[in-house]
Amino acid sequence: MISILIRRIVSLIVTLLVVSLLIFTVMNLLPGDPAAIMLGTSATPETLAALRTQMGLDEPLVVRYLAWLIGVLQGDLGQSYTYGVPVAGLIVERLAVTLPLALMAVVMSVAIAVPLGVAAARRHNGLFDYLAGAFSYISIAVPAFWVGLLLIIAFSTKLGWMPAGGFPGWDAGLGVGLAALLMPAIALALPQAGVLTRVARSAVLDVMGEDFVRTARAKGLSDKAAVWRHALPNALIPVVTMIGLQFTFLIAGAVLVENVFNLPGLGRLALQALSQRDIIVMQDVVLFFSALVIVMNFLVDLAYLVIDPRLRVAT
Asked: Which residue ranges traverse the bilayer (predicted)?
């Protein structure tokens, strides 16, 4: 078990280093001069040169990459060209919105999809199975931002029950903050619930034909109890994988929904940095997204080893 963990950690570190190099290279090959964008077309060559020196843009790419990497390892993500504040503070501030939003969406997705997928598997080829499949296909096909717009029209414009957008901050109270994130979380959760429903249904169906499930039924256990106590725990690997992927997707891929609801999250920060050509913010935010995906996959791998002891022997 220790050797498996060491190999996973080494692979994690190497992957992060390679990804950081790719991100830095791509970001610095983008067309356009950040100094010229910041100063505008009326800037003199001397002013541009001075700003480029101040921003370190006149240094070789290798030197700039190493300086950036060392800073990241020390917890110093640099300073935003546009906002003039440390990027780490910006990420933490925006993460206070995006992280609760993603967690709410994942909880909603799991709460909808797992019971629905298990029930559909128990009623395989029945009416409920077809209805669950229809929900899955429709929710996958409908874009999250469009669901968000429908929710705003229905519950904000027409009924006036929920705020149409914006985030008052957690200082306004936990209930107020959660209320502001409720509709965006629903918009994000529904498409993910459709995917997870299909995964849960297929995983439970694959396990329901196994001998240990039939033995549990033969011993007098009800069909419902056999599925929930024996089939579902042994079908968790693909379900856990999908939940992990969904969480990273919801954090990194909530750009459109955050813009629809005018939420000051990480996705919106990345979009603003791209439009303002703020290279250091783009690098750090994309690295954060990438590291989150890689670390989440690492944790999912560890979860496999906990869920299925056979993998510890096989690996």
From this structure: 9-30, 95-118, 130-155, 167-190, 235-257, 285-307
SS (H, E, C) 248-304: HHHHHCCHHHHHHCCCCCHHHHHHHHHHCCCHHHHHHHHHHHHHHHHHHHHHHHHHH
Look up residue 263 and give its two tokens. 């939420």
The tens digit of pLDDT for each residue in 180-190 reads: 888 888 888 88
In whole angstroms, give the CA distance from residue 4 to residue 208: 30
**CATH number of the domain at 87-314, out of 2.30.30.30, 3.40.50.720, 3.40.50.150, 1.10.3720.10?**
1.10.3720.10
Counting Cα atoms < 13 Å in the Cβ hemisphere of 257 gives 30
Domain ranges of the chain: 2-73, 87-314
Longest dimension (CA), the chain: 85
What are the tens digits of pLDDT across the range 199-239?
888 888 777 767 666 676 776 666 677 777 667 777 777 77
Mean pLDDT across the chain: 78
The tokens for 130 are 């077809």
Q: Evaluate whether 252 touches 293 at the Cβ level (below 8 Å).
A: yes
Nearest to 291 by CA among 69, 62, 112, 58: 69
Among 36, 91, 82, 129, which Cα is nearest to 252's? 91
- Rounded Cα distance, 275 and 22, in Å: 21
The 3-state DSSP class for residue 81 equals coil
Predicted pLDDT at 125: 81
Q: How many CB atoms lie within 10 A of CB 11?
A: 13
